[in-house]
Amino acid sequence: MEKCDVLVIGAGPGGTPAAMALASMGKKVILVEAGQGLGGTCLFEGCIPSKIIRESARRLRELRMAKEFGIEAPVNEARVNWQTILQRKARILQMRSQAARHKGLQIPGFDLRFGRASLLSPHEAAITLADGSTQSIGFEQAIIATGSRPNRPPIPGIDLPGVLDSEQILSIESLPERLTIIGAGPIGVELGQMFNSLGTRIHLLEVAAHVLGPVDEDLARQLQQRIAAEGIDIDTGIRNLSIEKDGDDLRVRYTNAQGEAAQVLSDRVLQVTGRHPNLEGLGLENTAIEHNRHGIHVNETLETDEPGIYATGDVLGQPMFAHWATAQSLALAQHLAGRPTPFPRPEHNSAVIFSEPELGMAGLTEKQAREQGIEYEVARYDFRQDARAQIMDQAEGLLKILFERDSRKVIGVHALVEGAGELMGEAALLVRAGLPIELIAGAIHPHPTLTESFAVAVRAALASRARGS
Amino acid sequence: MEKCDVLVIGAGPGGTPAAMALASMGKKVILVEAGQGLGGTCLFEGCIPSKIIRESARRLRELRMAKEFGIEAPVNEARVNWQTILQRKARILQMRSQAARHKGLQIPGFDLRFGRASLLSPHEAAITLADGSTQSIGFEQAIIATGSRPNRPPIPGIDLPGVLDSEQILSIESLPERLTIIGAGPIGVELGQMFNSLGTRIHLLEVAAHVLGPVDEDLARQLQQRIAAEGIDIDTGIRNLSIEKDGDDLRVRYTNAQGEAAQVLSDRVLQVTGRHPNLEGLGLENTAIEHNRHGIHVNETLETDEPGIYATGDVLGQPMFAHWATAQSLALAQHLAGRPTPFPRPEHNSAVIFSEPELGMAGLTEKQAREQGIEYEVARYDFRQDARAQIMDQAEGLLKILFERDSRKVIGVHALVEGAGELMGEAALLVRAGLPIELIAGAIHPHPTLTESFAVAVRAALASRARGS
Fold it and tell me: Does the beta carbon of A426 lie under 8 angstroms from any beta carbon of chain B?
């Protein structure tokens, strides 16, 4: 039986950095991947492909606005070549996966295998390769990083051809003319605006009373208005969903918030109703690992109930983000190498929704702060007053910086503006380091950038406090 | 004689925030502006108008790249409507100036006058209004914030019609076909790339051996390669400049770095060779204020040699940045209101060159760190490996984070990538707060954004140190 120090199962944004970091620190590591390359859902079916398509959508939208900026061109003749977009996507994914593989090859002790790993005991696993052969691996420690996949909710008709999930839609053979999206959370909104910009007629359906569930309420409201203004139909508070075939189309029936029977006809249906961990076939039953359908149970050092076996990323359940998985995994690698570092904490996490405009968040929302009983204040900034936003012709946008009332330490940052994603660097640092707002006010942000908003917002809050005291 | 607490001379990014902050804190303030509105050079002739034009240039460039992103349109038929750009510029400038004026109107104790102020004594000034009438103002304290204007270097022919400075070019009546730019510092490069994208043939001439004088050398080299690849001619290390008229054109003669006589013909010449403070007519001779052609002398609290009279912004000489002036002025306002706060320090300053791609910097360059005898290391990141940069089709880009060797505190950040401006929020905070790189590594930057580069760069540096130890 072949032996290694650490067996890592799953080569996504959780498993790959952990495996590379451990190998770099001298461990003999075997990384097993059931897919075709290094990168996981994020690279092949999630964050990256959706952002590649979104970049084309953004450019088409900007092209249509050219005249206002003094660029005269027959933009009404613009047509989307979906095949070019798919080819560009495939090229970038392959480039990134190969770059990761190349990086791995340069690390002694890093050994990549393509196959399916199954635990036989707390220190042994079988890898079934693509050709059907199996390898037996003994390990000192293991990391389970098998990720997640889209839910298939119990909606009548969900298995009809033409009903797609968030991964399938990114490789669809041609652009649908009309797309009904079930689920108006961050991913549903992001994909809805993207395909709307590319010319698809979008209908968003949401069971909850509001779109963008976990997002700051003020930002979600503002973004919802923008989405509606773009001509996307939104129906919230719906129930009794079902899908049926109608000729070449799909008919989605539901009861709307007013209790009335409603329906929408489209050529494709996209269902975006969450994800669940990949636990099947892992041989968890041959170990003491506790788990349920929401994920694997771990302690504060990501160790499962089976000593020596760890888990990281989506397979643990919420939050499910590539950067969260990577942060966990890098801390875990240090931990396993005997160089303890703090494990990431959910209240320091960040996220970007690549809506139009982008929506960035780091740390706590007001709702979370209230639930935790934190006394906080909010520094606000309206991007309509912002020089950079005006230059880019941004018609709306809001920044909120939440800070503890007494310590004035930042606990949350929420921004809606095109470019908000890049503002989350400062935001993530603020919440992670727990810096007081005086430090933001004193930092010399360059002009004209969106980052100035941070300083202007907290200066106003500080001035208001000074007047109040 | 009318009396006030504080007389502020100049309503640019230095004077305006100081005046508003002081009035908000209960002072009776008179703000005197010699121009037409609130905003100064930055708003009317500098940062903002150039960025508005640059936005049109950026959109035209992206439009020409549409096909690669799967957007098919007859982009070769695209034409620049310069009048539309000028009108858009005028609209935004007016909107911003009026918004500032409106904000001022809401502050009791804030009194705006349009005219020219001249000091008659250490506590009295005369304001000459547009109609020729004068007002006499007594003040307890004064702030001189009169800014700067472009140099007019002693080059033969510099006064010929068609030789423009960095302010005049932004309001030129039509796009020149060929433009020779004397001075390839940050502003020359920014304007050169902008007009090049709009279709003007650009020739950059620089007396120094390299372009982009104060910029990190690695970034300057990379940007220079990009500029050359765009078809902009660059000639550095030149001397013996002269300009003469040749029919409808202007001929610039010079000696190139090889000592050969050279010349370039164009319809306009832009000279961008620095700025000097506006000191004339201020009545400085009626006070003890010390000054020379580089600016007014002040102490560490921005007080001139005349007690009670302060100065801020470009009128102090280098560095000349709108955000630097604002940072100084806000600290000064607190100081004058008896609420001392730290004054900004040059080593915490930041800047963005809106080149293609953007170039952002905060804190010290390697050259400055060496000159100050600081033991430092550099964390690097090549944006060609970056997901977000690949999505945006960025073909080059580099991040450098300088940190003190022992304390690991960040002392400088330099980034070349489209979007680098927004990365300077985190950068400015890092250098201002002197945070160690471990905090960057631990902050959870969202994926896929350019901000991840900060974490990846310092993690690599930390891993390298760990191996070395």
Answer: yes
The per-residue DSSP string of A432-450 comes to HHT-BHHHHHHS---TTST
> Is the CB of B466 less than 8 angstroms away from the CB of A339?
yes
Number of domains within chain A: 3
Over range B368-390, report the average pLDDT: 97
Interface of A with B in 264-323 (CB under 8 A): 321-323
Tell me the CATH number at B206.
3.50.50.60
Chain A residues whose CB is inside 8 A of the B419 CB are 419, 422
Range of the domain at B136: 2-150+276-344
Q: In the numeric block, which tokens belong to residue B436?
A: 């160690």
- Domain match, B143 and B26 both: yes
Taking contacts as CB-CB distances below 8 angstroms, the residues of chain B near A48 are 387, 391, 448
Determine if the peptide bond prior to A344 is cis (ω within 30°): no
Q: Which of A205, A209, A213, A208 is CA-nearest to residue A250? A: A205
Q: Say yes or no: B26 contacts chain A, CB-CB below 8 A.
A: no
Is the minimum CB–CB distance between A51 and chain B shorter than 8 Å? yes
What is the mean pLDDT, run by run of 10 residues, along chain A of 469 residues?
Answer: 97 98 97 94 95 98 96 94 98 96 95 97 96 96 98 96 97 97 97 98 97 95 96 97 97 98 98 96 98 97 98 97 98 95 96 98 98 98 97 94 98 98 98 97 97 97 84
**Cα–Cα nearest to A400, from A374, A362, A444:** A362
ipTM above 0.95, yes or no: yes
CA distance A185 to chain B (A): 18
pLDDT band per the 50, 70, 90 thresholds, residue B469:
low
Which residue among A344, A373, A392 closes a domain?
A344
Q: Are residues B77 and B8 in the same domain?
A: yes
- Residue A70 and residue B81: Cβ atoms within 8 Å? yes
Is residue A114 helix, strand or coil?
A: strand
Over residues B430-449, the pLDDT tens digits come to 999 999 999 999 999 999 99
What are residue B134's DSSP bridge partners? Answer: B128
- B295: part of which helix (H) or strand (E)? strand B295-296
Point out the residue among B70, B321, B388 whose CB comes nearest to the CB of A81.
B70
Q: Within a domain: residue B124?
A: yes
State the helix-helix crossing angle for A322-336 and A15-24, rounded to 10 degrees. 30
Residues ≥6 apart with Cβ < 8 Å to B264: B180, B203, B205, B233, B251, B252
Question: Between the CA atoms of A298, A299, A302 and A308, what dihedral angle is there, to the nearest 10 degrees?
Answer: -80
pLDDT digits (tens, 9 = 90+) for B120-168: 999 999 999 988 999 999 999 999 999 999 999 999 999 999 999 999 9
Among residues B227, B252, B273, the one where a domain terminates is B273
**If you write DSSP's letter for every residue of B310-342 in order, what string do you get?**
EE-GGGG-SS--HHHHHHHHHHHHHHHTT---P
CB B323 within 8 A of CB B312: no
A5 sits in which H/E element: strand A2-9
Residue B406 has pLDDT above 70, yes or no: yes
